[in-house]
Specification:
about 270 residues; alpha+beta; Glutaredoxin; 7-stranded mixed beta sheet; 3-stranded antiparallel beta sheet; about 40% helix
Length: about 270
């Protein structure tokens, strides 16, 4: 899981520039340390129930996504490099995460923060170009008010430049109650930085605590679903439980032997 030190190490990847042919605005000063501080301070904050518009023109609110973990990615559609690259990488990371925690165990929203240009039609075209065709992944547009409130909630820092926007590149992990759980930085982050927090949220789900069998299955999946750096995928590894079982058998064997010896010492055989 990503820690603050890892975030600092990858900050050169997290602070992204995306160029467009916008007007000649003077580039603002960008403080990477302050951007990271603002982003990290958002962890533990509950998202406001803001309203957005999906690619079909339907109004949705953030509360519509409660009940499952949610990934939030902020982009702008006229970005020619970083935002498309992040979305394509996120698509592959999501596929790996679903192998690890379940196909329908979390949702994703990509939201356009350039309110002047990121219309539902532009967001739909952006999704198509990145090859995203996922029923649990929604592309949303917002008003200036909703985007301003959301970026403040997320700790998402961005500003205009002569060629478009500079912004921190982050994927925000939100829990089932709408509370920010983790920030993942960079356009090509390490997969465990995304998947391990999702494992925590999915396999520690409250509803399983009231069902012994479901809770046991979730705990087994939590500890046995491990990342294999050789393949870049997650797999089920039961070796830990095999080792525990072998250790328990050895302990039982030793205890049994000691009890047998105690019994023999108390009841010596005739002729001894």
């Amino acid at each position: 899981m990503p820690r603050l030190s890892q975030s600092v190490c990858c900050l050169s990847l997290a602070l992204a520039f995306c160029g467009t042919a916008s007007g000649d605005l003077q580039q603002a000063a960008y403080d990477p340390d302050r951007a990271l501080e603002i982003s990290q301070a958002a962890i533990g904050r509950k998202l406001e129930d803001l309203e957005f518009t999906d690619t079909q023109g339907h109004a949705v609110t953030l509360s519509d996504y409660r009940g499952k973990p949610l990934l939030v990615s902020m982009i702008f559609t006229s970005c020619y490099h970083v935002c498309p690259a992040l979305t394509r990488y996120l698509k592959d990371a999501v596929a790996t995460a679903r192998e690890a925690v379940g196909e329908d165990s979390f949702r994703i929203v990509t939201i356009g923060f350039d309110t002047a240009n990121d219309s539902p039609q532009r967001m739909q075209e952006f999704a198509r170009k990145q090859g995203v065709d996922d029923p649990d992944w929604t592309f949303l547009s917002g008003t200036e008010q909703s985007i301003e409130a959301l970026t403040r909630n997320l700790g998402f820092v961005y500003f205009r430049t002569p060629r478009g926007f500079d912004h921190i590149t982050q994927t925000t992990i939100v829990d089932a109650d709408g509370v920010i759980y983790r920030q993942v930085y960079g356009g090509a982050f390490k997969l465990p930085w995304l998947v391990e927090p999702l494992k925590d949220l999915v396999f520690n789900r409250p509803q399983s605590t009231h069902n012994f069998l479901a809770g046991l299955v979730d705990k087994v999946r939590l500890f046995c679903t491990v990342y294999d750096p050789n393949t870049g995928r997650y797999r089920i590894d039961y070796s830990l439980f095999v080792q525990i079982a072998i250790g328990a058998l050895v302990i039982l064997g030793i205890v049994g032997y000691l009890l047998l010896e105690i019994r023999r010492s108390r009841h010596p055989r005739q002729g001894d």
